[in-house]
Every structure is written in structure tokens, then in C-alpha cells.
From TrEMBL:
UniProt keyword annotations, A-Z: ATP-binding, Nucleotide-binding, Transport
Stated name of the protein: Peptide/nickel transport system ATP-binding protein
GO BP: peptide transport; transmembrane transport
Spans annotated as Disordered: 269-295
Native species: Luteimicrobium subarcticum
Domain of life: Bacteria
PANTHER family: TRANSPORT ATP-BINDING PROTEIN (PTHR43776)
Record-annotated ABC transporter domain positions: 18-268
Transport is among the record's keywords: yes
Family, per entry: Belongs to the ABC transporter superfamily.
One GO MF term: ATP binding
């Protein structure tokens, strides 16, 4: 089903497909008295999506996860920073360039109930998507493409092709939404909380399907979630955001099993059972989220952090590489990373994370095996 006029570049598994560098989005606050104020939704996010890999973007409500996905999908222009597709800057926002980009980078939304038109059948939704992305597809070739799409999302074509959305369960609708995204033959899927509105019993099935697409088709997947337990289960790498900023990134096993940043530690402590995908309320006891119009100076987590010093309240911590696979934006690690002390002003008092600091290993030994495939 690929478009011969615009074939995607040959990509080997593990190659970077889509990249964000210093991605930043400030939304203007509307109203007469706003005085030019902005919502600091996303500030300086770096992200690499590789062929055949899942990256989880984790953070609490309002941390900027959906804004990152919408920026990557080119639904918003960024305030600053770059988006690169196969190393080339992406600027398209409309017209043919945007349509070509949208074919390669597709988005799946949280709400499978709102994303399908209730008066149209599965056949209509998928035919429309196929015709948009593959001009001239009709007759037997169209029928074959429809069958293939349904089979890719593990739905029996004869059984589902003529159903209306109201005849489908939430999980089946989300599968149709995924099939519609696959009609474009994308290289990247941006999945914004794809399971959070589904019954607990069918969540694993959708994650298994996405893993299957990653493995069989080599699609790069951004999996957005507020639930770090599901990130461990499903993603190869995990990046944690707090109040629009990056706080920790690394292989999912290390980030979820030995969280280094005090905020990641709080997230993991609030998710007692890492195999529980129920999405039960894990926000309890985490304190107040910050004001995103006037976010805290320095480390944005400082008002909620038990280890904060004046340095944390004044200077933004850099992302420090605490292992070959792992980086953390916390002053508590500055003394343990070569060159880390030079990133702090002379004489500044560093926070002491005590026994909450993870043992920092600067050798290859820190590598943990990536999250294994899930049981189907
Ligand atoms: N179009 C917009 N205009 C103004 N502010 C916005 C807009 N979209 C998002 N925001 C603000 O940007 C911040 C980040 O929002 P975003 O939706 O990206 O967070 P999120 O991490 O996806 O949250 P959730 O888990 O609740 O979906 C929030 O403070 C939000 O109110
Ligand atoms: S110790 Fe300081 S830099 Fe680290 S998370 Fe706490 S407030 Fe932020
Ligand atoms: Mg969101």
C-alpha cells in the first residue's frame, strides 16, 4: 500500500525516524488582562523515536504530554525547537507537504467513542482513509486492502466490516481507529493515552496489538500515559516529564525499577503494583501541580521536593547522564557525574538525596535488558 511517488526512506530497525530537539510550546493566555502571559506547556523536550521501538512519555495531568504529541503531529506550531524526520527539519503545516508528513506520522487519540462517526460503518471509515492516502485504490485492490487492515488489528473482516460504531466495544473501536491510522502506512504512531478510556479487561489487548505492530511492521511508537506501571510493561524506553520539562529518561526497566529523579520515585511509589494496568487513581498524595503560567523558578519540582536547596529554587538543573542509557535533571547527581559540578554556580549547596539516590554507575554495567514482549 505504499505511495510510489513518495516512498519512505529505507529505515533499519533501531534507526531514528522522528526526533524532537529542544521542543518548546508556550500558549498565549487569552483575555484583556493577560498582559502577554503564556502557559509554559512544553519547555525544551528532546525525544527520539526509533523504528521498531516504543517510547513511553509519562507524567501527571497537565505536564505537557499531549502537547508534545500534537507538536510532533504538526497540529500546533512550536514556539521554538526543531522536529526532524529522518534528520531533516519538518516545517510543513498545510498543503501537500503536510499531507505527506501526516502519512508518515499518524496519531491515535484517547477517545475511541468520539473518533468514529456514528452514522458510518467500518467499511466507510477505512475506505475513506485508504482513498485519502492511496489515490485510485478501488475494486478488488480496495477490498484486499480493507481485509488486510482489519487483519492487522486482529479483527475478522467478514464479522466487522459492515458494523456501525455503536455495534462495537470500546476496544474494537480503538482497533478500528488504529486500522484507520495504519491505512496511511505510517512510520510513526503517536498514541495519546490509547487505553485510558477502555475497560481494564481489554487494555492489555490493545497494548499487545501496538507491540505487535512495532515488531511486525517496525513502526516507531510514542506511547503517552500518566501510568508509569504500563510504561514498564509496554515501552522500550521511558521519558518522564514534569510541568513541561524533562526530568528523567532511560530504558524502561531502569527508570521504573530504579527511578533516579525524586519525581519519578514519587510516581513509582504511587504505583504499587507495576503489573497492574487498571489505571487506578495514583495521583493521591502527590501534592499540588504547579501553575503553568508562572511555573516555579529553577527546578519546577522544587516546591514538592523534600530535598530542595536554594540552588534548586534558583537554577534549572541540566540533564545529567548518570549512565550510558540514562539521564536525570536533578542537582542531587551533579557531584557524581564527570563535569557535573561545573554546571552549578560556585559555592552552591547541592541537595543530598541520601538513600533515595540510585547508585550511579558510569559503566556499561548499568544497562538493564529492555522490557520484554508481553504475554499475548
Ligand atoms: N490549546 C491550548 N491553549 C492553552 N493552553 C493549553 C492548550 N493545550 C494545552 N494547554 C495547557 O498546556 C498544559 C499542558 O497540557 P497537556 O494537555 O499537554 O497536558 P497532558 O500532560 O496531556 O495532560 P493530561 O494527562 O490531563 O492529558 C496545561 O496547563 C494545559 O492547560
Ligand atoms: S533535589 Fe532539587 S533538582 Fe532534584 S528534584 Fe529536588 S528540587 Fe529538583
Ligand atoms: Mg493529555
Amino acid at each position: 500500500m505504499s505511495d510510489e511517488k513518495n516512498p519512505p526512506p529505507t529505515t533499519a530497525r533501531g534507526d531514528v525516524v522522528l526526533e524532537a530537539v529542544g521542543l518548546t510550546k508556550h500558549f498565549p493566555v487569552r483575555g484583556l488582562r493577560s498582559g502577554g502571559a503564556v502557559v509554559h506547556a512544553v519547555d525544551g523536550i528532546d525525544l527520539e523515536l526509533r523504528s521498531g521501538q516504543v517510547v513511553a512519555l509519562v507524567g501527571e495531568s497537565g505536564s505537557g504530554k499531549s502537547t508534545v504529541a500534537r507538536l510532533l503531529a504538526r497540529l500546533y506550531p512550536q514556539t521554538s525547537g526543531d522536529i526532524l524526520l529522518h534528520g531533516k527539519p519538518v516545517t510543513a503545516r498545510r498543503g501537500g507537504d503536510f499531507r505527506r508528513y501526516a502519512r508518515r506520522v499518524q496519531m491515535i487519540f484517547q477517545d475511541p467513542f468520539g473518533s468514529l462517526n456514528p452514522v458510518h460503518t467500518v467499511r466507510y471509515h477505512l475506505t475513506r482513509a485508504l482513498r485519502i492516502h492511496h489515490k485510485g485504490l478501488r475494486g478488488q485492490a480496495l477490498e484486499t486492502a480493507l481485509r488486510e487492515l482489519l487483519e492487522r488489528v486482529h479483527l475478522t473482516p467478514e464479522r466487522y466490516i459492515d458494523k456501525f460504531p455503536h455495534e462495537l466495544s470500546g476496544g474494537q473501536r480503538q482497533r478500528i481507529a488504529i486500522a484507520r491510522a495504519l491505512a496511511a502506512d505510517p512510520e510513526v504512531l503517536l498514541a495519546d493515552e490509547p487505553i485510558s478510556m477502555l475497560d481494564v479487561s481489554i487494555r492489555v489487548g490493545i497494548l499487545n496489538l501496538l507491540q505487535d505492530l512495532r515488531d511486525r511492521l517496525g513502526i516507531a511508537i510514542l506511547y503517552i500515559t500518566h501510568d508509569i506501571a504500563s510504561a514498564r510493561y509496554f515501552a522500550d524506553r521511558t521519558q518522564v516529564m514534569y510541568a513541561g520539562r524533562p526530568v528523567e529518561a532511560g530504558d524502561s526497566e531502569s527508570v521504573t525499577q530504579e527511578p533516579a529523579h525524586p519525581y519519578t520515585q514519587l510516581l513509582v511509589r504511587s504505583a504499587p503494583d507495576p503489573d497492574d494496568l487498571s489505571g487506578a487513581d495514583r495521583n493521591a498524595g502527590r501534592g499540588e501541580p504547579p501553575n503553568m503560567v508562572r511555573p516555579p523558578a529553577g527546578c519546577r519540582f522544587n516546591p514538592r521536593c523534600p530535598f530542595a536547596t536554594d540552588l534548586c529554587r534558583e537554577v534549572v538543573p541540566p540533564l545529567l547522564p548518570i549512565s550510558p542509557q540514562r539521564s536525570v535533571a536533578c542537582w542531587g547527581y551533579a557531584a557524581q557525574v564527570p563535569g557535573g559540578l561545573e554546571t552549578a554556580p560556585a559555592g552552591a549547596v547541592l541537595p543530598d538525596l541520601g538513600s533515595d539516590a540510585v547508585p550511579v554507575q558510569l559503566t556499561e554495567t548499568v544497562h538493564a535488558a529492555p522490557t520484554q514482549g508481553v504475554t499475548r
